[in-house]
Amino acid sequence: MPALALVDTPVDAFPGTFIPASPISATPVVGSCHWSTSLSAKLYRIDGWGAPYFTANSSGNISVRPHGSNTLPHQDIDLMQVVKEVTDPKSSGGLGLQLPLIVRFPDVLKNRLVCLQSAFNFAIKAQRYESHYQGVYPVKCNQDRFIVEDIVEFGLKSRFGLEAGSKPEILLAMSCLCKGNRDAFLVCNGFKDAEYISLALLGKKLELNTVIVLEQEEELDLVINLSKKMNVRPVIGLRAKLRTKHSGHFGSTSGEKGKFGLTAIQIVRVVRKLGQVGMLDCLELLHFHIGSQIPSTALLSDGVTEAAQLYCELIRLGASKMKVIDIGGGLGIDYDGSKSGESDLSVAYSLEQYATAVVESVRLVCDQKSVKHPVICSESGRAIVSHHSVLIFEAVSASQQHETPSDIEFLLESYSEEAQGDYENLYLAAKRGDHESCLLYVDQLKQRCVQEFKEGSLSIDQLAGVDGLCGWVVKAIGASDPVLTYNVNLSVFTSIPDFWGIDQLFPIVPIHRLEQRPVARGILSDLTCDSDGKIDKFIGGESSLPLHEMDNDGGCSEGRYYLGMFLGGAYEEALGGVHNLFGGPSVVRVLQSDGPRGFEVTRAVMGQSSADVLRAMQHEPELMIQTLKDRAGEGGGDEENGRLVASCLDHSFNNMPYLSMETSTNALAAAVSNLGVCYSDEAAANGGNSSGKYGNGLISVD
């Protein structure tokens, strides 16, 4: 039997051939040779999860519609144009920021607030509800200063307020609400100690509309004692543990076994005690939380009805000043575009249907009990901030499981008799066209050769030859895994922690090339040295994502390959860590404008530098860099080389930890080599950064 070589092997070298002379290209996602942006929009479900804020434009890029359904055609913002302006070097007129990048759209944030308020206003008017809606934003969803300040500003007319759940959060909420509507609520939730309650009472003294919500029964004594000491008449709310809950992941925070809230027994005791100390008139609000991502209006109505009954009972027990029912969070968003209530990824209702269900449930109970309609408050954080933030990152390379190399030989006579026997069985199975047996013998041949390699009787060249042959065979018979691994310049743990922590899925889509048919499928592997640092689950129940081909240089014919993660504006930034010391991404704030580009970058901040993340772990970058400079000086070399190394170190400490896609300079590598130090970076040739200031850089925007 002739030996088989993988270098320019003729087709008839393997009789009954099924092995091609050249590698098979990736299997196309869709068979049609024609493609369009509308087909990409359907493939990635953009019109499902993205409406009315994201669409695929005629150029094949993702566009942002900053004013939702009210966006005019000329107001669309092309994401690729934003990325270009932000990442282009300053010498080319760009901002010179490094990816990954979070792009915030305050116009979208404003539209979400307007739509939420409008939905409740419409439901209130339609049902002749005799009070109003007045929401709060739970700052835990995203505590970014500019997001919170925007919400307070955008919510001035509608008296939109804030909710805090910790001492730092109440401090930032108090500060921001000093510029807000005087009637806006400051709802104080979470576990409380004396300091927390004192801060809340201080807010009341500062004429903020502060409500202290009792989550635990023992908090009542603190409120009573401290309010007397500070001479403040508090506004008190109760959080109730409702019996209503939903069965999804987020429902675990509700029901009788929920983490927060008072049982019926505890509520009765609290009301009695407030009456005994003459403070029952301080009780004004009832709060509850069914759980995040409430899947249906049926469940919502059930919970709100139970809470409304409890609200009326509090009034019957003597709490005559009750005036607010706080329905908590739970207003869900459609992560997968399915508009289904069957999973945690979607919801089976619109904003308008949600508001209608809430208003109707409260009205029916209150009318039945002849109770005045209360103010309706909600804490809809996820629904407010998720859409306005987009995470942009790039794929740097793509690899496949089975290689078909053209420079590795399989020379049969160099292998053991047993391995040759396995090859003969593979050869005969191929002649018969028995693909199932081919796979069996491929596996047998590989296992035998791996064992021989472990025993030292097979060289690595021979092992590579077997791997190449087997990969070629498996791919030729169509049994290879067509899914590629796209290596992305990102940390899952930093930027998408909910995927790792609770299997939360987000829409991930190429933000360009949508006019082209994606011919590959891939999973995403991040930069961290952790096997969990990958994304292998996608919306729609998919285990891989349709993607475009990349060239050997880690790009494509159009340049770099950019992907976007959408609907991640809530929680991801606050929950992200610094695993492997990859810090937070760069952030830009983009407003729609009537200028030639259609947008304006009003704020741009470079992501956390290496010094920032080192400092977060108690290291001292200034001392570290001096130590390295001193060691470099011991290696000899002239003064110019010393300056280059110092500049290199300065730049590395001040640069983001992610991969730089720019080319390094040979001059610096040579200089460092003369010092006996193995290091290179491109910035030193341009002067580097030797300021000694290692931290985030705020990019000024004119």
Quickly describe the structure:
The protein is an alpha/beta fold. It is globular.
Structural commentary:
This is Arginine decarboxylase. The structure is a single chain. By secondary structure, the chain is of the alpha/beta class. It folds into four domains: 106-386, Alanine racemase (TIM Barrel), CATH 3.20.20.10; 390-399 and 482-607, Beta Barrel (Lyase, Ornithine Decarboxylase, Chain A, domain 1), CATH 2.40.37.10; 417-477, no CATH class; 611-658, no CATH class. The strands form three sheets. Strands 4, 13, 14, 15, 16, 17, 18, 19, 20, 21 and 22 form an eleven-stranded mixed beta sheet that branches. An eight-stranded parallel beta sheet has the order 5-6-7-8-9-10-11-12, with helices on one face. It has a three-stranded antiparallel beta sheet with strand order 1-2-3. Helix 4 (106-126) runs parallel beside helix 11 (351-369), helix 6 packs parallel to helix 7 and helix 14 (435-455) runs antiparallel to helix 15. The radius of gyration is 31 Å and the shape is globular. It starts with 36 loop residues before the first helix and ends with a strand.
